[in-house]
Specification:
Alpha-Beta Plaits; 4-stranded antiparallel β-sheet; two-stranded antiparallel sheet; RNA binding; RRM_dom; SLIRP/GR-RBP-like
């Protein structure tokens, strides 16, 4: 894989500075400093993608545990992100709607007919 994880970046490191620091090892296709979506401040890490694995390996060997932009950085091969399964708040956190979630009432709790299973209007009970 030609994508590297760069950890321990200085808060002031920019995408351009990251690119310039790694270009000497080969053609950099992408250099990104990851930023907080709310504050737009650096999160202290980023990624550099090279056109070849050989260039990425050379950069990793030369730059790992070296000073860059005033900080000692860690350089590793980037791992693939696991696919998302709609977890977390907005994706309902994996909450199974057939087990009491909104929509059909859930089979565990009477299949949408309330707790008694009958209609309180008819005087029926379960």
């Amino acid at each position: 894989m030609s994508k590297l994880f760069i950890g321990g970046l200085a808060w002031h490191t920019t995408d351009d500075a990251l690119r310039q620091g790694f270009e000497r090892f080969g053609q950099v296709e992408e250099a990104i400093v990851v930023k907080d979506r709310d504050t737009n401040r650096s999160r202290g890490f980023g990624f550099v993608r090279f056109s070849t694995d050989a260039d990425a390996d050379a950069a990793m060997d030369a730059m790992n545990n070296q000073e860059f932009d005033g900080r000692t950085i860690r350089v590793d091969k980037a791992s693939e992100r696991a696919p998302r399964n709609n977890g977390g708040f907005h994706g309902r956190g994996g909450y199974n709607q057939s087990e009491g979630g909104p929509g059909n009432g859930g089979q565990r709790y009477g299949g949408g007919q309330g707790y008694g299973g009958g209609s309180w209007r008819n005087g029926e009970s379960a």
